[in-house]
């Protein structure tokens, strides 16, 4: 028995679409990160990019539990002394709802060039529309439970 390993031309990538309306931010990010990294694919290989493309719509309607809207902070630094800026989750959702989901998924991917390549396959849109109709994305199943 030999173990099959994914090579450059072996993997054919699928396109998936996810509606984030009412979905929990962390649980949604976990499913998206698994799909981007290829862990839902039979060709999964740790050191290769075997994941699929994911299109997320309605990112502005993502749900969070508890007091995260006021207590969760996003930090960025300009590089200058005293240049640390912070925003709450509510402010970040108001200004750039796509970045909230992108940062949640990015934290779940590898911190190297493989992770950056996987993150490039994530397409996030705040509203309902997206320009990827030609790729014919299919709805992504968010739960692992068998459907009856």
Please characterize this protein's 3D structure.
This protein is an alpha/beta fold. Helices cover 28% and strands 17% of the residues. The chain has helices at residues 25-37, 68-71, 89-95, 97-106, 113-119, and strands at 15-19, 53-57, 73-77, 84-88, 122-124, 138-139. The strands form two sheets. Strands 5-2-1-6 form a four-stranded parallel beta sheet, with helices on one face. A two-stranded antiparallel sheet has the order 3-4. β1 (15-19), α1 (25-37) and β2 (53-57) form a beta-alpha-beta unit. α1 (25-37) packs across α4 (97-106) and α3 crosses α4 (97-106). The chain is globular and about 55 Å long. The protein starts with 14 loop residues before the first strand and ends in a 9-residue tail after the last strand. The mean pLDDT is 93.
Which key terms come to mind for this protein?
four-stranded parallel beta sheet, alpha/beta
What is the fold's blueprint, element by element?
Elements: E1 15-19, H1 25-37, E2 53-57, H2 68-71, E3 73-77, E4 84-88, H3 89-95, H4 97-106, H5 113-119, E5 122-124, E6 138-139
Parallel strand pairs: 1-2, 1-6, 2-5
Antiparallel strand pairs: 3-4
Helix pairs in contact: 1-4, 3-4
Write a concise synopsis of the structure shown.
The protein is of the alpha/beta class and 148 residues long. It has helices at 25-37, 68-71, 89-95, 97-106, 113-119; strands at 15-19, 53-57, 73-77, 84-88, 122-124, 138-139. The chain contains 5 helices and 6 strands, in the order E-H-E-H-E-E-H-H-H-E-E.
